[in-house]
Amino acid sequence: MGTILVVGTVAIDSIETPFGKEDEVLGGSATHFAAAASFLAPVRLVGIVGEDFPLDDLKFLKARKVDLSGLKVGRGKSFRWAGRYSYDMNRRDTLRTELGVIENYSPEIPAEWKNPDHLFLGNIDPKFQMKVLEEAGRPKKIYIDTMNLWIETQRKWVEEVLAKAHLVVINEEEARQLTKETSLVKAAKQIGSWGPVAIVIKRGEYGALLFYKGEIFSAPGLQLEEVKDPTGAGDTFAGGLVGYLAMSDQFDFEHLKKGVIIGSAMASFNVEDFGPNRLKDLEIGEIQGRIAEFQKLGSFGKIEI
Amino acid sequence: MGTILVVGTVAIDSIETPFGKEDEVLGGSATHFAAAASFLAPVRLVGIVGEDFPLDDLKFLKARKVDLSGLKVGRGKSFRWAGRYSYDMNRRDTLRTELGVIENYSPEIPAEWKNPDHLFLGNIDPKFQMKVLEEAGRPKKIYIDTMNLWIETQRKWVEEVLAKAHLVVINEEEARQLTKETSLVKAAKQIGSWGPVAIVIKRGEYGALLFYKGEIFSAPGLQLEEVKDPTGAGDTFAGGLVGYLAMSDQFDFEHLKKGVIIGSAMASFNVEDFGPNRLKDLEIGEIQGRIAEFQKLGSFGKIEI
Question: What is the pTM of this model?
């Protein structure tokens, strides 16, 4: 069992979906990631919130042994994001971004947390991702997330960070945007040529693809009757995936495939409620049950023709 | 082993894709369907072509024991379709449709072909689908395809045909358009309430979903580096699916799942070249090889957490 260090945002979100509206709910990439990963392995979190942050909202993470001693309370307001989802949930518009304390924040890794077994860099400015990599010593495994904004505005930094990563988690559109390839096979090959040995491409309701040393694995998307709020689905996906790799301390095709399924299960819970609410009182038996659903969803017997 | 009766179009297509342009290639829903289904079961084809049709192009179907004695050569020109695909192949524009002999055609079922084991109604005007159903006697199993055009212009007829079908093959967008439901689970439930016990939703590069008596199966999409021409992918998919159901003469969840995989394999070959060209000299060993790829693509071992 390895320990995970996560560096990312801890935020306050305001979200509108066709199913409702919630103001000032818990958000952030590190929050969602830790909420999922902590079911599987010990998590240490580095990030910043403002003086106005309702720290009580993080109690459920502490109860699950997430070490929050790397979470700084800075002077000023917390990072806030407000967004609205389209009717089919496939598009979202950012209504407001207030950087607050994040604006002048430079992540610091506590001395005793350096050289982590597993380092996950949530979706933050790739310049900061790079700084964390310089500070973190020699992580055994490095996993990174990124987003369209950084690909558009800081492509060179994104590529530099990718060169250091063992695994990257990226959206389908972002993979195409980054590589200018339509075929995801070609896109994954190109990203792989820059550094990461494992490329995980998220496809929302369609599931996820894993590319690893010339092999491909396709994870189905669970068919849900209702998706309440997709926010944080990608981060909980990464949390389940990296959590399982840390739990097993393995990094091969078999474990990566299982990790992708566990990530998909975590994400499928996360979208059932606003913010990470559904993960708060989730039980391990429920996760196992959903993994069994994934197993069944794509299984078929031996075909003879 | 049951025999399949297919009623649909036999056409001449002109196709532009980012990978090339081909004028006057073999097309039509019945053609593509028969090209795929004939690997698995005997096929009888009902349709019409014009006096200008290059009947030699159908030789490969005859060689595979497709009975073309129900293919009428009418006075006038063959049905022609011309289309252009967008860069990512996800959208196509119809450039030209020339109905020709189809305009005044009313499908007739030869007397000795009535009461078929398996009847597939390709994507033609639902009024004609209904007429075929009236003429066909008592088919043991009825499979139908439809398209957005008919849903927009002849919804009532589409619903009447659906009420008679055991299985419907429909695109994701068409399923949503038909039911006005975003969730495919809800869409499939609604379609099922109108008649069909099996609903197969095609999702292009993302694979296909099968809904059957409250159960769901998700077939992955094969990741291809190059797609040359998607025309007829849906019909070859249906051909593989219905072909397998006819070959096994079974209609339960296990056989439907396997049929969906065989259909996916057939479609994945079809898109490798223009028209049904790739299916002309395809060998059964290649199909088996691709089915094995599908088996591997979505498999993962027992997960313990």
Answer: 0.94
Bridge-based pairing state of the strands B198-202 and B118-121? unpaired
The 3-state DSSP class for residue B77 equals coil
Which residues make beta-bridge pairs with A216? A211
Please write the tens of the pLDDT for every residue from B214-273: 999 999 999 988 889 999 999 999 999 999 999 999 999 999 999 999 999 999 999 999
Tell me which of B218, B257, B282, B296 to substitute to probe the interface with A (most A C-beta atoms closer than 10 Å): B218
Upper half-sphere CA count for residue B224 (Cβ side, 13 Å): 23
Question: How many Å lie between the alpha carbon of B263 and the closest alpha carbon of chain A?
Answer: 12
| ipTM field | 0.91
Is residue B33 a contact partner of residue B238, using CB atoms and an 8 Å limit? yes
- Look at A185 and B224 and tell me if their CB atoms are within 8 Å: yes
Question: What is d(CA A239, CA A169) in angstroms, rounded to the nearest whole number?
Answer: 11
Residues of B in contact with A216 (CB under 8 A): 223, 297
User: Do B216 and B260 touch, CB atoms closer than 8 A?
Assistant: no
The answer to whether B204 and B191 have CB atoms below 8 angstroms apart is: no
Nearest to B226 among A183, A225, A247 (CB): A183
> Are B218 and A223 an interchain contact pair (Cβ–Cβ within 8 Å)?
yes
Name the residue with tokens 């084809």: B45
Model pLDDT for residues A7-52, shown as the tens digit of each residue: 999 999 999 998 889 999 999 999 999 999 999 999 999 999 999 9
Q: What angle do CA A286, A279, A165 make, to 5 degrees?
A: 105
